[in-house]
Structure formats: structure tokens, C-alpha cells
């Protein structure tokens, strides 16, 4: 466990900036509160070897984020289509039941004639 200068466990995160894509680090959990922030920061892995590698990591990360967004959109389309399908099946069931009632009612009326 790594403690920051505040005496609190330093939070773990991964950087996705263009300068340090994919690098793991620990930092003060109070970074959003300037009055309590102790400015503790520590990289957990070595610097990336080259600019090309950094660019590749950055591009791959955002490609994955884009794919995840696309998957979320497709999931929503799937949910919407399933909802419509269920509604259509319910309507079809009601139509079949109404047709059956009309058929039985018409048969009963014909028998009485």
C-alpha cells in the first residue's frame, strides 16, 4: 500500500494523455481539493520508449474507446428492436384472439339461424 503525504492511500490510475498514454501512476486522492492536496504523484512504470510508441498507444486507446461507444450504441439499438418485436408479438396475439372470438361468434350466430 502506498500512502501519499496526507497519510491516505494513494489512488491508482492510468494516464491517457498524449504525452503518457497507458502509463500507470499513483497520486493523492485529494487532488480535486486544493486545500487538502499534498501534490503526491508517482509513476509506476518507466517512460515510454519513443514518440512513435506513445502515438500508437494513444491511437489504440481511442480506437478501443470508439469501439466501446459503438458497442453501447448497438446494444441500445438491439434493446429498442427487441422492445418493438415484443410489442408486435403482443399485437399479433390480440389480433389472433379477436379473430378467434369473431369466428366463434359468427359460427354461433350461423348455428342459431
Automatic annotation (TrEMBL):
The keyword Ribonucleoprotein does not apply. It comes from the Eukaryota. This is GRF-type domain-containing protein. It comes from Lactuca virosa. InterPro entries: Znf_GRF. It holds the Pfam family Zn_ribbon_GRF. GO terms for molecular function: zinc ion binding. Residues 4-47 form the GRF-type domain.
Amino acid at each position: 500500500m502506498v500512502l501519499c503525504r496526507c497519510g491516505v492511500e494513494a489512488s491508482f490510475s492510468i494516464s491517457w494523455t498524449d504525452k503518457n498514454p497507458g502509463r500507470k501512476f499513483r497520486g493523492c486522492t485529494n487532488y480535486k481539493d486544493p486545500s487538502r492536496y499534498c501534490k503526491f504523484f508517482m509513476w509506476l512504470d518507466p517512460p515510454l520508449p519513443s514518440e512513435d510508441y506513445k502515438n500508437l498507444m494513444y491511437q489504440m486507446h481511442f480506437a478501443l474507446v470508439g469501439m466501446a461507444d459503438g458497442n453501447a450504441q448497438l446494444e441500445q439499438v438491439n434493446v429498442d428492436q427487441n422492445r418493438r418485436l415484443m410489442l408486435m408479438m403482443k399485437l399479433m396475439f390480440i389480433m389472433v384472439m379477436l379473430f378467434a372470438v369473431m369466428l366463434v361468434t359468427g359460427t354461433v350466430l350461423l348455428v342459431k339461424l
